[in-house]
Design goal:
Keywords: Membrane, Signal, Transmembrane, Transmembrane helix. By secondary structure, this protein is mainly alpha-helical. It has helices at about 5-35, 40-60, 70-95, 100-120.
Length: about 120
């Protein structure tokens, strides 16, 4: 799929993306605390918590990713987080439906399971 050099470059990008995701989650939680009200506040907190946890996971796991299967699982974590948290944020900002949130959650679950399989195959 990727040469070792290409995989290393992509993993560095995934690590940086995780760190940016965690930073965005902190900003989102500040927004939720100071600007959002009611259900929107609770929903944005959930989006921020999920984004923060998965941003930290990406930043921590990507540098230690030995195989392409691990890399695929981490890409799924990023995609699922963007779908889940992004859907909640877009619902608040643009009043779009949260249709992608359940799919994003499913992608997250499957990605964590894929990461577990990759770890067992090592």
């Amino acid at each position: 799929m990727y040469t070792p050099n290409e995989l290393a470059t992509r993993l560095r990008l995934l690590t940086a993306t995780g760190a940016v995701l965690a930073a965005a989650a902190v900003a989102l939680s500040a927004y939720a605390a100071h600007a959002a009200q009611g259900n929107a506040q609770a929903s944005l907190y959930v989006a921020a918590i999920l984004a923060f946890g998965h941003g930290i996971a990406l930043a921590a796991l990507a540098p230690r990713t030995p195989t392409q299967l691990h890399f695929l699982a981490l890409c799924g974590l990023l995609l699922g987080t963007l779908m889940f948290s992004g859907s909640l944020v877009l619902h608040h900002v643009l009043e779009l439906p949260v249709r992608l949130a359940p799919l994003g959650g499913s992608v997250l679950i499957l990605s964590w399971l894929l990461y577990a399989v990759a770890a067992l195959r090592r």
